[in-house]
Amino acid sequence: MPRDPKSPGEGAAPKAAPEWPRCAASAAIFRGPAVLLIRRGKGALTGLWSLPGGHIEPGETARAAAVREVREETGVEAELSGLVDVHDVILQGSDGSLVAHYLIAVFCGRWLAGEPLPGGDEIAARFVPVEDIADASRYRLTDGAAALIHRAREQLQLDRA
After folding, report:
1. Closest CA to 42 of 103, 118, 110
2. Cα within 13 Å of Cα(40), Cβ side
3. Which CATH superfamily is 28-160 part of?
4. H/E/C letters for each residue in 57-88?
5. Alpha carbon of 116 to those of 39, 72, 98, 129, 137: distances in Å?
6. What whole-number distance in Å separates Cα of residue 70 and Cα of residue 49?
7. Percentage of residues in the chain with pLDDT exceeding 90?
């Protein structure tokens, strides 16, 4: 019987899957003029404010992952309206080596219920007036977060038309 050309030869180790990029999902959730932010408590981005989000689990849709991550990281229930963008987070070491690469599906939506409380990996969670995110002395955001928040707000306003 002919061997499947895509499978490794007999006795050969299967080819390892690449470590990066990893898929993730996040969401810009609004309650009135305020957006839900979390302050990272672990990892390379510790101390920075960001949109709630995290890994997409095997078999989980990006949309479901975003809703789950918002709930796990903040206790807030939210309804998603749409996709804002697919955002790359690429972290490099001082020698230029790749430390991490996340491909994040960023959604927008509205608050349904719950008051924000930080989850296990977060040190803070709160609704922040969008105008306040420009104050870097109060809210040092992860790269690209401010632009994504503004785009999400614009998209939600278009949904009302």
Report:
1. 118
2. 16
3. Nucleoside Triphosphate Pyrophosphohydrolase (3.90.79.10)
4. CCCCCHHHHHHHHHHHHHCCEEEEEEEEEEEE
5. 12, 10, 33, 14, 22
6. 14
7. 72
Q: What residue segments make up the domains of the chain, in order of their start? A: 28-160
Q: Which helix (H) or strand (E) holds 156?
A: helix 145-160
Strand 98-113 versus strand 22-31 pairing type: parallel
**pLDDT given for residue 160 in this prediction:** 55
Q: What is the pTM of this model?
A: 0.84
At 130, phi and psi to the nearest 5? -55, -35
- Rounded Cα gap, residues 139 and 124, in angstroms: 11
- Residue in the structure block whose two tokens are 């309206």: 81
